[in-house]
Amino acid sequence: MNGVIGVLVDIAKTPAFLVSLIALVGLLTQKKSGADTVKGTVKTFVGFLVLSAGAGVVSGSLEPFGGMFETAFNVKGVVPNNEAIVSMALQQFGTTTALVMFFGMAVNIVIARFSKMKHIFLTGHHTLYMACMYAVIFSVAGFKGASLVAVGALALGATMTLSPFILQPFMRKMTGGDSVGLGHFGGVGYWLAGTIGKLVRGKKEKVVTTEDVNFPKGLAFLRDSTVSIALTMMVIYVIVAIAAGPAYVAKNYPDEGNFIIFALTRAGQFAAGVYIILQGVRLILNEIVPAFKGISEKLVPEAIPALDCPIVFTFAPNAVLIGFFSSFVGGIVSMIAMGLLGTVVILPGVVPHFFCGATAGVFGNAEGGLKGSILGAFVQGILISFLPIFLMPVLGNLGFANSTFSDADFGIGGIFFGSLASHGAQMAVIGGLVVLYAIIVLYSVFAKKKKAA
């Protein structure tokens, strides 16, 4: 039994397998020809591998940047990183996490089938991370065995439903419909960025977006997002490399040669990674949306696939870079504020500020153009910097580790349930779940009445 669950969890946490399996089911339910079914399934599988490869290139290119930044400016503190904190937590909570993840995904599908909240969350690795965090928090609250799995699965299923649901109005504006949603646990941050975009837009009929920026004729080549991303990252990377000094690269990357060449190469790799991500996204959208039609028609009426955050990058490539830098600046401002306030110092993790900041930039741009992109991503950067301070105490012994969960929904969900657990233990946690499911039920009832009227 454990072996079967383990295989299912391995499939679920691997986006390429999970989403291609969903595409296969969708194509089969539509009774597509064998050739079309194979083509759609394989291209979806390859598309996610392309996207994952691009994300890996981006993460790898940014890895030295964080260390160089810390050395250059002599700062120490906690670095939010989902992968790092989960790898530590799984040593103790591995089995529980697997069970919470498996049953949480089932709860998400049941909610989508019987409620008016139709998103099916398909970002497997984020589902794993959230399952792990809930396993830790509810264990600290005193839940054990079957009750721990049940409570964790119900919390995870609700989170997988509500996070993409609150973002759908913004996704609808970007995509022109409900064919796809965003399944990434930075949802509260993206919602905040989009809302800020609305506020700064005001009543202007024409909003200057990040894609409308007019460059002088001699700099028209900067309209190519790959070129502008590469050149911008080269400037930033070289500045930080010079500030860190050649000794840092010589000590930590002895086979990389000259430190300036090293910085330029990593900056170029970053741009290459973003380009690969964009190609993977295009490939996925061309296949998964038509394939998912079969799921929505036959199994879960009106279901909306919620996919990983790079899915929005193609809608505003310039906002990706702007959002990243704005979010990172928000992290630096927050770090300085924490030092002055005497709290735990949360260092700006480059990877979460890229993926979350870039996505926030796209959401802010969709509503408020260039101003919305800058301000929305900046505030999102502050949010994901301060949330970990309040999350760490509810993680028990894991809270003393030199890392923590990074994206906004981890902070919101963890603080919500962790605070309930610390104030009223298990009954308070159950009460919190009742509130979440009451929201889902009440919305569904209201939506039905509104449609009938």
Automatic annotation (TrEMBL):
Keywords assigned by UniProt, alphabetized: Cell membrane, Membrane, Phosphotransferase system, Sugar transport, Transmembrane, Transmembrane helix, Transport
Compartments, as annotated in UniProt: Cell membrane
Record bears the keyword Oxidoreductase: no
InterPro entries: Ascorbate-PTS_EIIC, PTS_sugar-sp_permease
Topological type in the membrane: Multi-pass membrane protein
Membrane-crossing segments per the record: 12-29, 41-62, 93-114, 126-143, 149-167, 227-248, 260-285, 306-329, 335-363, 375-395, 425-446
GO biological process, one term: phosphoenolpyruvate-dependent sugar phosphotransferase system
GO cellular component: plasma membrane
Coiled-coil zones: none
Matching Pfam families: EIIC-GAT
Biological role: The phosphoenolpyruvate-dependent sugar phosphotransferase system (sugar PTS), a major carbohydrate active transport system, catalyzes the phosphorylation of incoming sugar substrates concomitantly with their translocation across the cell membrane. The enzyme II UlaABC PTS system is involved in ascorbate transport.
Quaternary assembly: Homodimer.
Family: Belongs to the UlaA family.
PANTHER family membership: ASCORBATE-SPECIFIC PTS SYSTEM EIIC COMPONENT (PTHR33843)
Name assigned to this protein: Ascorbate-specific PTS system EIIC component
